[in-house]
Amino acid sequence: MQEDLFIEETSADTTQGPAFELKGSSFTLPILRLLSSDLASIERGLSDHLAKNASFFENAPFVVDVEHLSERGWDVDFSLLCELMRSKNIVPVGVRGANQEQQASAINAGMAVLTGGALQSLTVCEPAPLLPPTISYQFATKVIDQPVRSGQQIYARDADLVILGSVSGGAEVIADGSIHIYGALRGRALAGASGSENTRIFAQILEPELVSVAGNYQIFEERLPESIHGKAGQVYLFENKLSFLPIGR
Amino acid sequence: MKEIRLSKVIVVTSGKGGVGKTTTSASVATGLAMLGHKTVVIDFDVGLRNLDLIMGCERRVVYDFVNVINEEASLKQALIKDKAHDQLFILPASQTRDKDAFTKEGVGRVMNELRDSFDYIVCDSPAGIEKGAIMALYYADEALVVTNPEVSSVRDSDRILGILAAKSKRAEDGVEPIKEHLVITRYAPARVESGEMLSLEDIQELLGINLIGVIPESESVLQASNAGVPVIRDDTSISGQAYQDLIARFLGEEKPMRFLDVEKRGILKRIFGA
């Protein structure tokens, strides 16, 4: 979703009242996320993609996401890119994820600079085969089909761990990958035990004694906050801090 | 031709001490025998034997379980026939040995021999998770996990449930796991209501196993123990009735749980007691 301001023209009557109102609204805009700076391969990709959805995208406004390129220090010629997009009957309205140079160049090409906004669905322009897609991790899965009782310890080496039951107080479940508990977590759960920060802990009832993701742990002498205690939730690492989020609200 | 018996080994266990394992073992064994099932109850608490006292046969102990394991006596010599029920036998523990007397092979041999002639073999486990307790549960087909409505007892029961699932013969052989039943003893509705004790729902949620009986706290249990008569034989005792219900449920009958609500004590009851 991109937040936009737009100007709504009121009646053509010039004798009374203001000429316009300023209002805020939000629109869902398709995002063209560039994975390559090679205009030729972008052109090919666009042609293919738009051919399938020609009427849907006709004169549709697009935001160009260049984060992938700016992270790698790759340049884009925005005026050529805009020309290319218009030639395909889509309208480049703004850019996001640009570095300062790219922002200046985009403004010159008549684009707006957008900040923020969460990616929902991506229109991915197939890149020239330069980089493999990012894979956070790949683990096997270890499944425990009974509850984990007090005093028991389960370790899933190089694997995700799925528990079909509850993890009691005084029990400990550890995985190099993520941990999924189809029951209550009342004991300890340690995901990413060998350091994978992308791992998470999921439980249908969160009442843990301790949780840890990639060595960042937290002990709960008291209950979790009311908003999450006893609820279905997940634990993950966000900016090196453990975060708790309910599931399925 | 030998009659084929589908005998069942039932372990009565808890982890924690003093929660009512021996009381439950005595009443369960007696209850099964009262309904005509040939039953033996074995005391695994070597060195601290109590079952013979609660069964009222302490003066008739000559040989014990350890003698049989060490082949110093035959089963026939060691088994004590109950005075009231001819279908009920007691295999007492040794008061003088220690738990190292148990070996898997020795206990297994005795179990096999008992399976030939009994319908039910009730194993009264000692407290703790050491050798005696492990041996008591090792050969079990079903388990009665005795729990009091308090957190430490629930925690220890949880620990024992983990051991049942991991260290029993059934677990080692990878066959159908031990069938676990929850028995809540010393349940005092008034103290649950005031929040001093965990409720049935709390305990069930924490342990997640099927509840087979709730035995209310009652003075009659202590009196029965001192008299050497299992409380299940006391029809006037609510604890005795609750054990009778438990046996019926164990044998497959549907029975609602009783004695769960706070009793409104009338003036007569206050004077004469329940």
How is this structure best described in words?
- The complex is a heterodimer of chains A (249) and B (274).
- Chain A is α/β, with parallel strands linked by helices and 249 residues long.
- Chain A has 5 helices and 18 strands.
- In chain A, the strands form 4 sheets. Chain A has a 6-stranded mixed sheet, with no helix packed on it.
- Chain A starts with a strand and ends with a strand.
- Chain B is an alpha/beta fold and 274 residues long.
- In chain B, 41% of the residues lie in helices and 16% in strands.
- Chain B is built from 13 helices and 8 strands.
- Chain B has helices at residues 21-34, 51-54, 65-69, 75-78, 104-117, 131-138, 151-167, 169-173, 189-193, 200-207, 219-227, 238-250, 267-272, and strands at 8-13, 39-43, 80-81, 88-91, 120-124, 142-147, 179-187, 210-216.
- In chain B, helix 1 crosses helix 12.
- Chain B starts with 7 loop residues before the first strand and ends with a helix.
- The model of chain B has no long low-confidence stretch (mean pLDDT 92).
- The chains are: A alpha/beta (249), B alpha/beta (274).
- Chain A binds chain B through residues 146-152, 165-166, 168-171, 183-184, 186, and chain B through 155-156, 158-159, 161-163, 165-166, 177, 205-206, 208.
